[in-house]
């Protein structure tokens, strides 16, 4: 009995049906489209069983599946190593074409290359599309074709190119829903995937405050942030819709979205930054890397209220306010002289919005070792940051319950730590 000819759309960092470029093109193909998601063991095996991000992916897929069931279709969920899953799928179905949206992280590039080789060997044609960014890879470059390594000229070129085409095209996928394969695949529970519910949840995004974003974004007690970042990370929102909207609403908010693409371009063009300093001149810095100090930083018991409140917020919720992220990162790298890779790894474990390019980019910014980074002699004073951005201590009291009962002494004196950091950097920067 011959197998039915099908196309497959492979969901990854684009967990939505709306304005999805690869899905739009898949649904216009000749064959009925099976929507697919693979829970990748190469990623999952290192995660705790109650990882909130896996739960959020499962929840997002469930919403997609519910919508597909309304039109007589469903999503196919697989779990395993991606190469083995695809070998199995090619045995199960007569796959003619495979569509997916690009991912620019080193692991994903290597994975997708391997899958495309398997598909080609089985006479299936693969198509990849730009979806999670407005401009990708080498679309925003200097006049000589080299990538920008400083944000402001990148932003200016980005805006110039965007304005020439604004609004950027959005894709009406719903108009082609008839192209989905008619099926009823079983949708697995979170437990069947090997995970369990987490008490920590991803919050819905909120853009109601956007008109005065620039005036309120630095004050953590106001809790006036968009909570968009996990949704951008997993693609439950469309970057095209968001940018087309933000362009007319708030320049500062739009700039944050451009920073996201800047760091993605840096990661794509300079993949060494995942583990190494962008500025190799900083490779000679002699870090203290004291494990006991690192544990106090992780647990939010440094004696600096702004630092400790941020770390406790992270540990309890998976979120941390952006202003506070800068303070805690600077403290780890400058006050404690612990290399940024330690902090980056801890954030990767805890942050619900963990995105490799942004996490590496921001940590190297704080450490002074990245592109367009804060200079090494800029050392945030946590006490001054607290007075400027949480003067009444509302944010601090929310996360440090014992604050008014007599808070502990700082684990390191600021002036001494600042002088030590500057001297260590000076001595370690390679000439």
Number of helical runs? 19
Q: Give the overall average pLDDT.
A: 96
Using only C-alpha atoms, the radius of gyration works out to 23 Å
Strand order of the largest sheet: 3-2-1-4-5
CATH topology of the largest domain: DNA Cyclobutane Dipyrimidine Photolyase, subunit A, domain 3
Share of helix, binned? 40-55%
Distance from N terminus to C terminus (CA atoms, Å) equals 71 Å
What is the molecular shape? globular
- Multimerization state: single chain
- Unreliable sequence segments: none
SSE order, as H and E? Answer: EHEHHEHEHEHHHHHHHHHHHHHH
| Biggest sheet overview | 5 strands, parallel
Query: From the coordinates shown, what is the CATH architecture of the largest domain?
Result: Orthogonal Bundle
Find the count of extended strands (DSSP E, 2+ residues). 5
At the fourth level of CATH, the homologous superfamily of the largest domain is DNA Cyclobutane Dipyrimidine Photolyase, subunit A, domain 3
- Tell me the number of structural domains: 3
Q: Structural class, please?
A: alpha/beta
Strand content: 5-15%
CATH class of the largest domain: Mainly Alpha
Key features?
19 helices; globular; 3 domains; Rossmann fold; single chain; 431 residues; alpha/beta; Serine Threonine Protein Phosphatase 5, Tetratricopeptide repeat; five-stranded parallel sheet; DNA Cyclobutane Dipyrimidine Photolyase, subunit A, domain 3
Describe this structure in words.
- This protein is α/β, with parallel strands linked by helices and 431 residues long.
- The protein folds into three domains: 1-132, HUPs (Rossmann fold, 3-Layer(aba) Sandwich); 134-168 and 211-269, Serine Threonine Protein Phosphatase 5, Tetratricopeptide repeat; 274-428, DNA Cyclobutane Dipyrimidine Photolyase, subunit A, domain 3 (Orthogonal Bundle).
- It is 46% helix and 8% strand.
- It contains 19 helices and five strands.
- It has helices at residues 21-27, 41-44, 52-69, 82-92, 106-121, 151-163, 190-193, 213-216, 229-234, 239-246, 251-269, 291-299, 305-317, 322-335, 340-350, 356-367, 382-389, 394-399, 414-428, and strands at 5-11, 33-40, 76-80, 94-101, 125-129.
- A five-stranded parallel beta sheet has the order 3-2-1-4-5, with helices on both faces.
- The relative contact order is 0.11.
- The mean pLDDT is 96.
């Amino acid at each position: 009995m011959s197998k039915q000819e099908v196309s497959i759309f492979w969901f990854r960092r684009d967990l939505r049906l709306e304005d999805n470029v690869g899905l739009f093109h898949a649904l216009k193909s000749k064959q009925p489209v099976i929507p697919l998601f693979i829970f990748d063991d190469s990623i999952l095996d290192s995660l705790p069983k109650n990882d909130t991000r896996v739960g959020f992916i499962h929840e997002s897929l469930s919403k997609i599946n519910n919508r597909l069931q309304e039109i007589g279709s469903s999503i196919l969920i697989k779990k395993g190593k991606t190469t083995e899953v695809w070998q199995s799928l090619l045995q199960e179905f007569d796959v003619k074409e495979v569509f997916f949206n690009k991912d620019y992280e080193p692991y994903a590039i290597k994975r997708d290359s391997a899958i495309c080789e398997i598909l080609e060997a089985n006479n299936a044609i693969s198509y990849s599309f730009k979806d999670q960014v407005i401009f990708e890879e080498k679309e925003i470059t200097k006049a000589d074709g080299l990538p920008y390594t400083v944000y402001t000229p990148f932003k200016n070129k980005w805006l110039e190119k965007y304005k020439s085409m604004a609004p950027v095209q959005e894709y009406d996928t719903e108009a082609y829903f008839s192209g989905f394969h008619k099926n009823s695949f079983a949708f697995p529970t979170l437990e069947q995937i090997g995970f369990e519910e987490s008490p920590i949840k991803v919050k819905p995004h909120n853009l109601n405050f956007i008109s005065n974003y620039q005036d309120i974004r630095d004050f953590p007690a106001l809790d006036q942030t968009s909570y968009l970042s996990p949704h951008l990370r997993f693609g439950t929102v469309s970057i095209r819709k968001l940018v087309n909207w933000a362009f007319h609403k708030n320049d500062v908010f739009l700039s944050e979205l451009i920073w996201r693409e800047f760091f993605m371009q840096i990661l794509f063009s300079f993949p060494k930054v995942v583990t190494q300093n962008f500025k190799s001149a900083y490779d000679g810095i002699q870090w203290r890397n004291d494990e006991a100090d690192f544990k106090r930083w992780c647990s939010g018991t440094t004696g600096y209220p702004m630092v400790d409140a941020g770390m406790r917020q992270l540990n309890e919720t998976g979120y941390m306010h952006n202003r506070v992220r800068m303070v805690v990162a600077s403290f780890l790298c400058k006050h404690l002289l612990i290399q940024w890779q330690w902090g980056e790894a801890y954030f990767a474990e805890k942050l619900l919005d963990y995105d490799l390019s942004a996490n590496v980019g921001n940590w190297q910014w704080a450490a002074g070792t990245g592109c367009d980074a804060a200079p090494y002699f800029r050392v945030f004073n946590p006490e001054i940051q607290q007075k400027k951005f949480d003067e009444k201590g509302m944010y601090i009291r929310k996360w440090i319950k014992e604050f008014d009962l007599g808070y502990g002494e700082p684990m390191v004196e600021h002036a001494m730590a600042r002088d030590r950091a500057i001297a260590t950097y000076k001595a370690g920067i390679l000439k």
